[in-house]
């Protein structure tokens, strides 16, 4: 069953990966990988690299504005493009979308392993893995979000290797854990949180398992330098000045200073001045409601056990596992709130805590299941309530599954309990700009002119550029991206312009709505 489940996921990715557009940052992420590939080639084989005719067109590392972003994932993708012979932009991004999906399937498998150990059964592990797949927003982003969803998988792998090392603190397990943690840091700097969890829970194990203290200390001595070596080796930006450049990257990550507006609760506000509840509210309204309810039950069960006998709870293996899940979820979320960290595009920067939410939800469901089974057959009220709750749970999980089918390929617009028009008014819409591909395709399908001039809002020009990357070459050659006064069509995905456009822009000739939320509109410009 497990093999079939993950086999179906692989086939699903093969079938669907061409349906999604190019996200806002995809070209910039790819360029970062290309610049790093040039840097590595010049450092390792300078004579051979200088013979490459295209190298002169690639910026140097000193000109790379994203040098402080890890490239452990982007760099191999650049190499894979060359190996696969992907030259046209369609081939490049279709290949990359398939690879990111397969990476996310591997991350789902890591969650399955963690859940199997935590909840004590492969069936429960498979249920938690399925819950991750049936999370509409993350499902869609698993095809184009190279940063946050990929990092979710790497972070989960780090938790899996941490749990194995804590169970058996031998140096081999410490070495594997170091590889996982170093890789996570090289994907996103926030992977340093795994270092804190490792040291903190190693201390707990040493306190409650004195016989393992020497092994814990010895293997920890292997883990720390090996992690540092992996981080430096996998991040070319650090090669010349490992400590200084890492501190610079970490400071850039923790003190993001770009000025940008975002729509939150119906207001356009600066990302530098977000209210404390920004991340929790986004998380709540985009997570399927049954998961949130069961998460609350799971946290309640864990809290009740901890408060009843704190010492015994912490001394038990399951108690420390519960504490790890709580720290995984509430630690980063609490830090973001207390430090007033800059977030934007919803809560995507915190996606890596979502597996902990699902695991604690599984803990809640498991507790409810055991309580229901333990109820005597003579308790018809409780058993009846159990059947009713199971029916509601099935309906609650069926709703996001149905929406994933009906809204394809825009599952990224899923809201759990808010009506679509309300959500579209209160929150950002298609902030990835994916629907621009559909708008351009409609224009070119309905206009047979040799050249078709199209404009968009100046602030979202990158969206229009990304949208044409997946067009067939013959259609791409007909497209002209021009200023508004020269355009025949105006295309918008409503980012940074949530209000309706004035009638002077021209009549709307096409739009795409998902659950009542308008994602993309095409306006025909007035004039001959």
From TrEMBL:
This is Glycosyltransferase RgtA/B/C/D-like domain-containing protein. PANTHER family: MANNOSYLTRANSFERASE YKCB-RELATED, MEMBRANE PROTEIN. InterPro entries: LipidA_mod_glycosyltrf_83 (IPR050297). The chain crosses the membrane at residues 93-112, 124-143, 149-166, 178-204, 216-238, 281-303, 323-344, 351-372, 384-406. It is found in: Cell membrane. It is a multi-pass membrane protein. The keyword Chaperone does not apply. Keywords: Cell membrane, Glycosyltransferase, Membrane, Transferase, Transmembrane, Transmembrane helix. It comes from Hymenobacter glacieicola.
């Amino acid at each position: 069953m497990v093999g079939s489940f993950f086999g179906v996921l692989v086939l699903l990715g093969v079938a669907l990966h061409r349906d999604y557009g190019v996200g806002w940052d995809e070209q910039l992420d790819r360029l970062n990988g290309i610049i790093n590939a040039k840097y590595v080639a010049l450092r390792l084989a300078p004579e051979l690299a200088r013979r490459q005719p295209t190298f002169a067109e690639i910026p140097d590392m000193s000109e790379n504005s994203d040098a402080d972003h890890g490239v452990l994932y982007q760099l191999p993708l650049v190499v894979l493009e060359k190996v696969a012979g992907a030259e046209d932009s369609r081939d490049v991004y279709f290949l990359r979308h398939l690879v990111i999906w397969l990476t996310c399937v591997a991350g789902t498998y890591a969650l399955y392993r963690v859940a199997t150990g935590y909840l004590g059964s492969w069936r429960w592990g498979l249920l938690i893995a399925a819950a991750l797949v049936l999370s509409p927003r993350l499902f869609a982003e698993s095809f184009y979000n190279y940063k946050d969803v990929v990092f979710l998988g790497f972070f989960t792998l780090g938790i899996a290797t941490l749990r194995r090392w804590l169970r058996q603190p031998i140096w081999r397990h410490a070495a594997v854990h170091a590889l996982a943690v170093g890789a996570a840091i090289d994907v996103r700097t926030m992977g340093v949180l795994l270092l804190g969890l490792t040291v903190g829970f190693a201390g707990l194990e040493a306190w409650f398992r004195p016989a393992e203290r020497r092994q814990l200390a010895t293997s920890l001595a292997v883990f720390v330098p090996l992690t540092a070596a992996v981080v430096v080796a996998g991040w070319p930006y650090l090669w010349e000045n490992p400590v200084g450049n890492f501190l610079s990257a970490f400071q850039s990550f923790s003190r993001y200073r770009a000025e940008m507006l975002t729509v939150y609760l119906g207001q356009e506000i600066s990302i530098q001045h977000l209210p404390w509840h920004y991340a929790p509210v986004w998380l709540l309204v985009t997570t399927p409601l049954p998961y949130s309810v069961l998460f609350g039950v799971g946290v309640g069960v864990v809290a009740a056990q901890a408060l009843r006998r704190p010492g015994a709870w912490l001394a038990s293996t399951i108690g420390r596992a519960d504490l790890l899940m709580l720290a995984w979820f509430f630690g980063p979320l609490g830090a973001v709130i207390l430090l007033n960290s800059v977030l934007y595009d919803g809560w995507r920067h915190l996606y890596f805590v979502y597996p902990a939410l699902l695991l604690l939800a599984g803990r809640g469901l498991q507790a409810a299941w055991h309580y229901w089974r333990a109820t005597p057959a003579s308790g018809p009220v409780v058993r009846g309530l159990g059947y009713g709750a199971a029916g509601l749970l099935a309906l609650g999980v069926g709703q996001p599954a149905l929406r994933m089918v009906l809204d394809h390929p825009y599952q990224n617009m899923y809201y759990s309990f808010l009506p679509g028009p309300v959500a579209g008014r209160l929150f950002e819409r298609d902030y990835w700009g994916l629907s621009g591909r559909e708008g351009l395709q409609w224009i070119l399908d309905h206009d047979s002119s040799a050249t078709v001039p199209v404009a968009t809002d100046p602030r979202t020009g990158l969206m229009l550029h990304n949208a044409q990357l997946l067009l067939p070459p013959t259609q791409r050659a007909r497209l002209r991206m021009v200023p508004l006064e020269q355009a025949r069509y105006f295309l918008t995905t409503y980012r940074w312009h949530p209000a309706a456009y004035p009638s002077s822009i021209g009549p709307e000739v096409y739009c795409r709505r998902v659950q009542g939320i308008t994602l993309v509109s095409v306006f025909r410009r007035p004039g001959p």
